[in-house]
Write the structure tokens for this entry.
Amino acid sequence: MDFDIQESELPVFKLMRTSLTTTNFIIDQFLAFVLRFRRPVTMSVNTAVVIGGFIAAVLLRFDFVWPAHSQLEWASVLGAVVLVKLIVFSRYKLNEGWWRFIGIRDVPHFVMGCAVASTILVLLNLAIWKDIALPTSVFVIDWCVCTLGLLGTRLFSRLIAQSMAASGRELQHKHPLIIIGAGRGGTRVLEELSLEGGAGYHVKGFIDDDPNKAGSRIRGVDVLGTTDDLEELISSHGIQDIIVALASPGHDWLRQIMSTCERFRVRCRILPSFSEYITGKASLGQLRDIRLEDLLGRSPVQIDERHLAGAMHGRVVLVTGGAGSIGSELCRQIARFGPRILLVFDKDESGLFYMQHELKRRFPDLESCCIIGDVRNKKRLSRLFKKYPICSVFHAAAYKHVPLMEDSVYEAVSTNVLGTRNLAELAVENRCDQFVLISTDKAVRPVSVMGATKRAAELVLESIPDSNTSLVAVRFGNVLGSAGSVVPLFQKQIAAGGPVTVTHPDVTRYFMTIQEAIQLILHSSIQADQRDLFMLDMGDPVSIVELAENLIRLSGLQPNVDIPIEFSGLRPGEKLHEELLLNSEEFSKTKLPKIFRVQRMSVEATQLAQQFGKMTRLLDECNDRKLLDWLRKTVCEYRPGTHLKSLQPTVLPSTRLSQPKFQHTLDPDNSVGGTATAD
């Protein structure tokens, strides 16, 4: 006859659970009392250790025969020993601290504190206690016994705290865990878990590719093998969680680990990088899930910021589009260098409101001013330049969404081109030190209205006569997490259960993190000549399909199993592949890594100025057909898509703006798609 009895229903287990709960309650109350009077309790324990250590030292020295001296003499000696040691202990802060957090770094303080106290006692013995005349060896033995006693009490307390934490969870299910990396990061994770009684995890072992660590044991935990053994270890130990505790794991290697975890449905987390500790975005021992930027292959930027601090400190800096993703990060990084005044200019009222509160919270000593306005309003901008002695202008305000701008030619030209012209002219008129335009890789051989207007904005800087103001444009690709990036859209689609829509199976884009982009922009600004165009090293183009698959995996799901991926077709104004240089352009290295100077062919500034004067008149007419025709004449590389055919008049070659002739051979892959649904 079979009986199906759960362990939790047996009386013996109920009794064990009740006893354990009662015991833990009593111990918790005792610990609460101890913590409330932590310093007196510590001093009392130290006093007991000092007295017991001295008595033990005397007995050990005289073969457990107590020397014949009066009780008064021994009382005076013992009182002096206690007084001297407690005073020295206070100097070395041995009467303070949390016992359960004691570590190797605390040992020298105990050794030195006890040594100094014993030295003082030796001098007192030679100078005052002549009647007793204790051998110096007594104090040497006392130093050893006292040091071991103090460390022993702390270590015992730590062991008790850890065992209590573990016992409080011993009836709970613990998740089997493997730590990849048996170095400092891995041992730190193990230590944090030990202090928290495992925190619901059972560390099965380490994995490390260092052959010297194979088969070794670190802090009681075995090194089980290398990453080549990961699949076997996951299966044999039933692993549910993996922690990557390496300083700078390779991106390809990390993708392989993620792929393995995906197949076995194992959660994978990672220790933050050193740069995240420095910037305050993470704390020591804090774990986080693996993010998309960990898999992209972008190495962190390591640039000396001293010159940058000198260029920003004590100056008035204007950031347009300061409420946007790129502009707001510009404000955060500029604020670190202590500008005299930081002006944040944007027409987004809500975004500006939140930016104002963030700056006041994070940089309370910074004088910042958030100003609502439109870069198309030159009179409004002129009053701003007259009110503040602006030294540097970072122009990030622009319309950036490609499909939307295909239907809004007037808005794109008036904001992206006229707004840039207004700011650049005012910067020159008011003798600013520098004007920096945030450009895009879509300005290279543009097939979209947005890309063409950003290329026209670059030409605006060419049309302005030479002056003492440095006019700089910085060209780069997509930024992870920005308002115009595909990443937030994919994340929303994943959260909604899919599908994730990608325009084309072969589409690629350049990506970089927003923090890296802003660092490189700022460093580009301080090494510019009178007129410069810089290009940022974007690395290798990223497949959007792989990007979507990685985002799905990072959400703990499987592509095309849990979340389907669908293809919607290229949208108006989109290319399959973006570029960073025109046919007529070449690049050269600069002093700083990942920043290149673009060497362009000269253009006729007078002709450009005439074209931009014509643009102003056309904007007054608010005619998209004429503005599109103006874009085609001004930006000779621009090839509008077939969806704009109704707006394109027949243009003879002689009516095009005279610029250096290039031989354009458009790749079919870079052609614009026809009608397509937005993803």
Notes: Residues 12-167 form one domain. Residues 136-167 form the longest helix (32 residues). The chain has three domains: 12-167, 175-290, 306-670.
